[in-house]
Amino acid sequence: MATRSLLLLGLVGLLAAGASDALISSDALDESPARAISDLRDAVVKVLGFQTEGVEVSGFDVGDARVGQSVAYEFDIEIDKKVIPIKLLEDVSRWESVDLRFFRADRERGGDETGLVERRTSSRVPPKLPPFQLAGPLELWIQDADGMRLSLPHDVEAGTLKKVLLSDGAKVTVKGARSVSLRVPLQLSLPLNRTQHGSRRAASGLLSIAEALRHAARSTGEPLLSLRIVGPTSLTSAPSMSPHDKLKLKRLAPGLVELSSRSVPATSEDERVEKATLWPLTSLNGSDSNLRGFEELLASVLGKKGEEQGSFALLKAEVSARNYMKTGFSVSKKLIDGEVDWSRFPRWKTRPEKSMAHFEVLARIEENGKIIPERIAAAQPFRIADSVLESVQTGNLSMSRAPIVHPPQSYFTL
Q1: Which interval of the chain is the signal sequence (predicted)?
Q2: Nearest residue to 20 via CA among 378, 373, 376
């Protein structure tokens, strides 16, 4: 047991030290799942640095591999000139067996009149974020969205868009995006928990910060928040807007449009309802479990600074949909004489010659075919129940030497 514990700690420590540098640069996903698993094994072995004689790595079977999609959150927070990175990952709701079509590279003919030139095209469909709503004032930089639809609520021909300005009061729903990230760092004020105006209750920390940022943007008349959205398929007017309040489109330059609301933005009574949502993500309200969890995490990271007057910088904020793979493997090491204390080991058991530990690796699948091992966790295999003969349990006594036991008399016995 001691050897196994040391092996577990060593593996986890080595992975934490070098997992970020482990990449599979080959086009394994475009060849076969067997090669992809094999390259993943080589990357994990390289990261863990197995060079000791007698150490064997087994597993990494295609039949055991599972793939799934999840949403990753990455933040870089700077406070007191110290940058703190935060990485979160939602639980994968459904793991599926590796599908050969997921790794397949189709070949299409084309390129000249004879049609003999072949080019490789990937059949993998990139993961997408669930639809979300944004509210202005805000600027959106669009990337990799040549066929994006713009519906206000009817489809509008605006050409290839690179930048969209949302004026105050304009709300849109974004569908099909692969990631959303912050373009320009933000300076956010503290403390986290502030008392709402006219109320004794403290507002949610993130909601109060978002409210202050939105108020500052309204005061300046310019969008202070700039987001980059990768791969959206459509921008439509939010369902929360009135059917008679269609968004107005104004073309400012090639690839640049401004969307504005026809109604006057809410400033007093109607704004109380909007305060329950996290601007600019109006589809996210204060009761969301992810929002509450991140707020608790942020409070623990800031510590006492989060309760004092001051500020902190949000250098990076990115939410992205990603493909992940998980598979299991085992590591065994040959035991050396005198390495293990066998004093508590039963005599009747055969002493093992190897120490074995089981693990599960979680790897991120990139669009370019790279597989990046992100996390290794110790896995508990199924337990094997020991079956012992009765003679062994009783000390191998014969029946002639066993004591005679007379059961108590029963009156119902004939």
Answers
A1: 1-22
A2: 373
Q: Which residues contact 317 (CB under 8 A, 6 or more apart)?
A: 74, 75, 76, 181, 182
CA dist list (Å): 277 to 212, 214, 284, 322, 414: 13, 12, 6, 26, 83
CB 257 within 8 A of CB 157: no
How would you classify the pairing of strands 354-365 and 186-190? unpaired
- Whole-model pTM: value is 0.72
Average pLDDT over residues 361-384: 80
Beta bridge partners of 186: 314
Q: How confident is the model at residue 209 (pLDDT cuts 50, 70, 90)?
A: confident
Residue ranges of the domains in the chain?
A: 2-69+323-385, 126-287
Give the pLDDT of residue 337.
Answer: 79
Task: Report the SS3 class of residue 271.
Answer: helix
pLDDT tens digits along 75-90:
999 988 899 999 888 8
Tokens found for residue 148: 């994006």
Residue 236's closest CA among 168, 327, 359, 154? 154
